[in-house]
Design brief:
Shape: globular
Number of helices: 0
Low-confidence stretches: none
Largest sheet: 4 strands, antiparallel
Helix content: under 10%
Strand content: over 45%
Order of helices and strands: EEEEEEEE
Oligomer: single chain
Structural class: mainly beta
Length: about 80
């Protein structure tokens, strides 16, 4: 079953985040703790880690694009 990876709230003032770089590509194996992407907030750039094991099934937000908190970034299954 696929699990959605959502844009996390990484700071108190954050409303949107920008995907700076994906470290995994569609079809890559993903393990709990792997860094999936770098997310830029209003204050810093932080790593987005996976909490799921599986395969990166889909990427919904491309590098350089913004997404609001809670919106799906990718799917792992």
């Amino acid at each position: 079953m696929a699990q959605l990876i959502e844009m996390p709230k990484l700071s108190d003032t954050m409303t949107v985040g920008t995907v700076v770089k994906w470290h995994k590509s569609k079809g890559d194996d993903v393990a709990n703790g792997d860094v999936l992407a770098e997310i830029e907030t209003d204050k810093a750039t932080m790593d987005l880690e996976s909490f799921e094991d599986g395969i990166l099934l889909e990427v919904f937000v491309e590098e350089g694009s913004e997404a609001p908190i809670g919106s799906p970034l990718a799917a792992v299954g």
